[in-house]
Amino acid sequence: MTEFLLSEPVWAYPALMLLSFLAGSVLPLGSEWLFVWLQTQEYDLLTLIIVATLGNSLGGFLTFWLGRMGRDLYSSNHQPGKRWLYAEGLFRRYGTWSLLLSWVPLIGDMLVVMAGIAHVPALRACVLILIGKAARYSALGLIWMGAVT
User: Fold this and answer.
1) Which of 52, 93, 95, 96 would you label with 120, given CA atoms 20 to 30 Å apart?
2) Do 98 and 59 form a contact (C-beta atoms < 8 A)?
3) What would the pLDDT profile of 94-147 be if each residue is shown by its tens digit?
4) Taking residues 29-39, what's their average pLDDT?
């Protein structure tokens, strides 16, 4: 089934958008493998970057809103672990600028949730998340291009 969906060009970009969205949310998934694989199939790099960035950013926006809506749950039921404490330290030190690291596995999702809990203005949060995610896929695409040329 996966081979059919990805072998047909019409499905490649929606599959990347969906996987990037899910990976950008709090689900423990990665979209990099599909992004790189599609690059090896000679899909347009700029389109791949745009699609993956948009999907991953939308997943990040969802995570932000979940943090905003779950503020009361956080304060009453939260048992912080090492990663959470590390992310919290980054957020306290760098504030909203830490959202540029929203692409970092594990820590990035926590930073986005914290921004929601802290009621960071939505437009600011979304722009910083978008910039961070765009930098991630741009770098990944350019690194892969350099590796194969």
Assistant:
1) 52
2) no
3) 889 999 999 888 788 888 988 998 889 999 999 999 999 999 999 999 887 776
4) 92
Assigned token pair, 93: 């030190």
Q: Hey, how many other C-beta atoms are within 10 angstroms of the C-beta on 136? A: 22
Between vectors from CA 57 to CA 55 and to CA 58, what angle results, nearest 5°?
A: 65
Residue type at position 28: P
Amino acid identity at 100: L
Cβ atoms of 12 and 20 closer than 8 Å = no
Provide the 10 A C-beta neighbour count for residue 63.
24
* Residue type present at position 119: H
Q: Which two tokens stand for residue 27?
A: 């689900």
DSSP conformation class of 8? S
pLDDT of residue 7: 59
Structural domain boundaries in the chain: 2-148
> Comparing C-alpha atoms, which of 10, 58, 67 is closest to residue 31?
58
